[in-house]
Structure to design on (230 residues):
């Protein structure tokens, strides 16, 4: 199923996007498992999915009829979220309705600017673009570069802001005050329903939750730690 930009915005506004990801070496690292998790969270009310890896994107597209935000992580440091145009183009061809990519002002491995990458994606594919930002200046640059969505995914991870224990509420407020469009999506360390309420109150128009829903090893560790704490 294809969606227009307006349809995607309407679908996710004020609602939950679930990030369904597993990484090499994890028991759930299988596209079929990702697709099953995706179908399960959609049944629970998720308005869209955020999925990593080409095979996982393809499997998820076959399993659900909701918007799929796709990305391709490549590398271990620096710009790793859909780092080049080639990665982004492949994510679009795999079926992602929205391509999520590193939206920081750091140099991209292929030498293209964010604006050049966004423009090529818009020209050569039907995909929209979500810029994963780490600061207010990133968000301003992403808006200027033509991104369709701005997310706070990299707040605390790009070196410009400290890593907050929970979501970076201050950054959300700063972006909301300075950037009227594109749509602002909160992501990063959102672990509880109260965190969701907080980011929406701070100005986010949609919210991504991943680990707290789709990463059993981490969720289990929280409870294990609680058992071991006097």
């Amino acid at each position: 199923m294809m969606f227009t930009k307006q349809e995607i915005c309407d679908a996710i506004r004020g609602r939950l996007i679930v990030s369904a990801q597993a990484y090499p070496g994890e028991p759930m690292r299988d596209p079929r498992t990702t697709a099953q998790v995706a179908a399960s969270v959609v049944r629970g009310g998720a308005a869209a999915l955020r999925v990593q890896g080409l095979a996982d994107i393809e499997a998820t597209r076959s399993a659900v009829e909701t918007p799929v935000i796709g990305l391709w992580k490549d590398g271990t440091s620096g710009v790793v979220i859909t780092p080049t145009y080639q990665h982004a183009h492949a994510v679009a061809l795999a079926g992602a309705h929205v391509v999520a990519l590193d939206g920081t002002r750091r140099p991209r491995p292929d030498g293209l600017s964010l604006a050049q990458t966004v423009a090529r994606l818009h020209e050569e594919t039907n995909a929209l673009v979500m810029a994963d930002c780490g600061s207010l200046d990133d968000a301003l640059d992403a808006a200027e570069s033509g991104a369709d969505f701005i997310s706070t995914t990299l707040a605390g991870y790009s070196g410009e802001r400290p890593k907050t224990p929970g979501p970076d509420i201050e950054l959300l407020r700063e972006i909301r005050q300075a950037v009227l469009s594109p749509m602002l999506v909160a992501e990063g360390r959102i672990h509880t329903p109260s965190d969701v309420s907080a980011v929406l109150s701070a100005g986010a128009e949609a919210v991504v939750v991943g680990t707290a829903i789709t990463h059993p090893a981490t969720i289990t560790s929280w409870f294990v730690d609680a058992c071991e704490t006097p």
Observations:
- The chain has a mean pLDDT of 97.
